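Extended Data, panel c. Modelled sequence:
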Amino acid sequence: MEKIYTRPNALNKSVSGYCPGCMHSTITKITAQVIDELGIGERTVCVLPVGCGTLGALYWNLDMVISAHGRAPAVATGVKRVSPDSVVFTYQGDGDLASIGLSEIMHAANRGENYTVLFINNSIYGMTGGQMAPTTLVGQKTTTTPGGRNPDTDGFPMKMAELIAQLTSPVYVARFAVNTPAYINKAKEGIRKAFQNQLDGKGFSLVEILSNCPTTWGMSPIDTLSYINDNTLAEFPLGVFKDREEEQS
């Protein structure tokens, strides 16, 4: 019998502890696939902050550094500078990157640090209790906005990809989703490009990936996929917001 799929070497042989239907599992898998396909597992370092993504320490078969909440970009800067031959990436949620770590990510991007950022945007704080995040949609209910996010008092969702793309130094900034098989394939290609940019010494790349949180959204996994199509994509359009290679061609 022909084998058509096998577990990536960059993944440990363990059962996922993510909530049923959480797309962190899918993103973890396609990231591992890209690392295997590029042949960089032995020299890749993942920097994780606090949040659901920290569970990646259990699942990726890679060197890991755990940082304080929001500080992954600063730690990744140190790792990459002292070990420039390492392939370094951060894996951060929206509460981590866009709120607690907003200053860290903006300055790392502005410096053009030569590493890769995977930004998982599920529009809510997942692990810490389902509070409103900077990317929570207008009208979306959370534990701190039980009546829905009100822009008059809470502001509007922050569009991090568009914001970072306005800086001069980043070389690649794009947003993808993982709520359909076609979107998953496109997200994988975006992750690959972001890693390849680092391998080529081009500089800072950020890939934002729209995901879900069935637990704190209070929905079934299937319903969250429809919610992304009907609501999240309207607020956070998919696309490439900066690609210096394309701009120069």
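The chain has one domain: 24-248. This feature is highlighted in the accompanying rendering.
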